[in-house]
Amino acid sequence: MTVAAILPSRNEPSTIAAVTAAVDTALTDTALTDTVLTGCPGGAVVVHADSSDAPDTAARFAATGTRAAKVPLTGLPRGKGAQILAAAHHLDTHPSGRDVAAVVIADTDTRNPDPGVYRALLDRVAGGAALAIADYPRFWDEANLTNHLARPLIAAATGIDVPQPLAGDLAISRAALAAVRRAARALPPELGACVDGYGIDAFLLLRAAACGPVATVRIDTPKQHAGSFPHLPDIYHQAVPVLLHLTAATTPRLPQQQPPARYRAADRDIEPGRLRSMLSTLEHLSEGLDGYDESAWPLPVADAWHDVTSGTPAPDAARRLWPHCTRHVRDWLTSGQHATTSTRADQLAAAHARLHNAVLTSAGARR
């Protein structure tokens, strides 16, 4: 199987070389490739999709030795999704990508990247998955959008329970990636803009799931990468409209004899000053919330989903949900600092089950 990698980056000179080398090791494993790798078209290829403000990230990519062919795409429009889609377009239109059957997409802010993870993702696609995605534990104060909204909503609406649905490390089949590109071109402008940004992660998963099986690769240690909290507003307002739009197009069904969802919320201490800053930020972001106590989390998520199924545009529903989400994250951080690891995991699993029941119940019946 001839394989490729897409490395979207923005201002990551300290980590791009290590990620490039780790991905190259995975791509050029002879168990995965069916050609002699000479750096020529037809072998493995690494596409660097960069939108950095300075040239040092691209320079360090260029200076990293690889067995796979390297393709630098620089000066791209800013936006994770736009960069990934530009790289996918390159694979479709240039000889370096014409024989590629599977593509790894990797976060380029990862510290200590493991080639075995990327190789395992490719193995799952080689085995028939449309998409394979990393499943690593997250520290309890991270993954707020994933654990409290994205994972339980996707599971409730589609029956697909992926522990890290917004993970930046995944592999996707060429056919599924082509389907993603076609679907992206058909989106209305506001949702298209979301997919050009952080909404790409949910879009890749849910569109690929329509093409074939989704597999996960379990990893036992938390991922070491740049924190996402400073970008929470952007991530939310780009990812959640996509989540609501795509999940609202499905018909929820009660899972048959499935065990309760298990969450891995890895423990760590947070420096008090950092926690105070996070709580203050969230308090500001949740201003303007009315009736919070009347609809405890995660019922506002179910309300937003039902609104979209009834015709409300997904971006509008996401904007109304936003203050509920930020207030919930503030409550989680406030109480979570005193909770045990198992208690946090149990609380996430219980909210997961409540959201599934709420999605299966009409909004009016819950009043």
Report on the structure:
The chain is an alpha/beta fold. It has 2 domains: about 5-230, Spore Coat Polysaccharide Biosynthesis Protein SpsA, Chain A, CATH 3.90.550; about 265-365, no CATH class. It is about 45% helix and about 10% strand. It is built from 13 helices and 9 strands. The protein has helices spanning about 15-25, 55-65, 80-95, 115-125, 145-160, 175-185, 190-195, 200-210, 230-245, 270-285, 300-310, 315-335, 340-360, and strands at about 5-10, 45-50, 70-75, 100-105, 130-135, 140, 170-175, 215-220, 265. The chain has a 7-stranded mixed β-sheet with strand order 3-2-1-4-7-5-8, with helices on both faces. Strands 6-9 form a two-stranded parallel sheet. Helix 10 runs antiparallel to helix 12 and helix 11 packs parallel to helix 13. The termini are far apart. The model is unreliable at about 35-40 (pLDDT under 50).
